[in-house]
Design goal:
Elements: E1 2-10, E2 13-21, E3 28-34, H1 42-53, E4 57-60, H2 73-85, H3 87-102, E5 107-117, H4 119-129, E6 136-140, E7 158-164, H5 172-185, E8 189-194, E9 207-208, E10 213-214, H6 217-235
Helix pairs in contact: 3-4
Length: 236
């Protein structure tokens, strides 16, 4: 396996993605990975390596720039909030990563999907809303709210949402509104809700019931199995 950091730009912001692929990769399908609010962390870099072992090119995007990594909720919020408030700027940042992945020699630029976690789940859904040329997007315990004041393009990507049913950050009315949004857009969408499951259920370090972030091994396993099946469907 080969791993490397790849530098790309969104205007004046230098971003540092982390890429993993097999030694014999050639015109391989790629999966972009969007990190949670803490930045381009080891969790998404490890997912890139796991995907590389399965024959994909794993590309952990750097959404904040500079491979920045927060050390507290306050720092994380300070980095995330400006992009949450300017979803057009967020779309530009994500497009920069997609362009970088499309330009890699080992990547089949026509076979790219995107997967995100928490804040990153919202990111990949916004890529779909923007009409990015992706085969599919996967949101793991992601926020589902659309951007205000930004028109959505036709959604060409298949959409898979993996959701904890008692996630306090994504209440049932937000899920219903998202389903209505996707249906109205004519998207090929799925929502898998895991019962008695909180936010951040794929993260083994999540253990704050009061904050609503709790790891759930069964939901994590089921979500990963659904992810692999979905990727096969997207790329076959």
């Amino acid at each position: 396996m080969q791993t490397q950091e790849i530098t790309y730009r969104d205007g004046s912001v230098e971003c540092i993605g982390y890429v993993a692929f097999s030694d014999d990769a050639s015109d391989a399908p790629a999966v972009l990975l969007a990190h949670d609010w803490s930045g381009r962390n080891e969790f998404v870099c490890n997912k890139a390596r796991v995907l590389a072992e399965l024959g994909y090119v794993g590309f952990a995007m750097d959404i904040y720039g500079g491979a920045w990594l927060g050390s507290s909720p306050e720092e994380n919020t300070a980095m995330m909030q400006p992009l949450m408030e300017d979803r057009a700027a967020l779309r530009n940042r994500l497009q920069a990563a997609l362009t970088a992945a499309q330009g890699m020699d080992v990547v089949d630029s026509q076979r790219i999907a995107a997967m995100g976690y928490c804040f990153g789940g919202l990111c990949v859904l916004d890529m779909a809303r923007a009409g990015a040329p992706l085969r599919g997007v996967i949101s793991n315990h992601g926020l589902l709210i659309p951007a205000d004041g930004i028109a959505s393009a036709p959604i060409e990507a298949k959409v898979l949402v993996l959701h904890g049913q008692i996630d306090p950050m994504v209440p049932p009315e937000q899920v219903q509104a998202f389903e209505d949004e996707m249906t109205e857009a004519g998207a090929d969408w799925q929502v898998h809700a895991y019962g008695n499951t909180y936010h951040a259920f794929t993260n083994p370090e999540a253990n704050d019931v009061d904050f609503g972030t709790v790891y759930n091994a069964d939901a994590d396993r089921r979500a990963w199995e659904s992810t692999l099946s979905f990727l096969r469907e997207c790329f076959d």
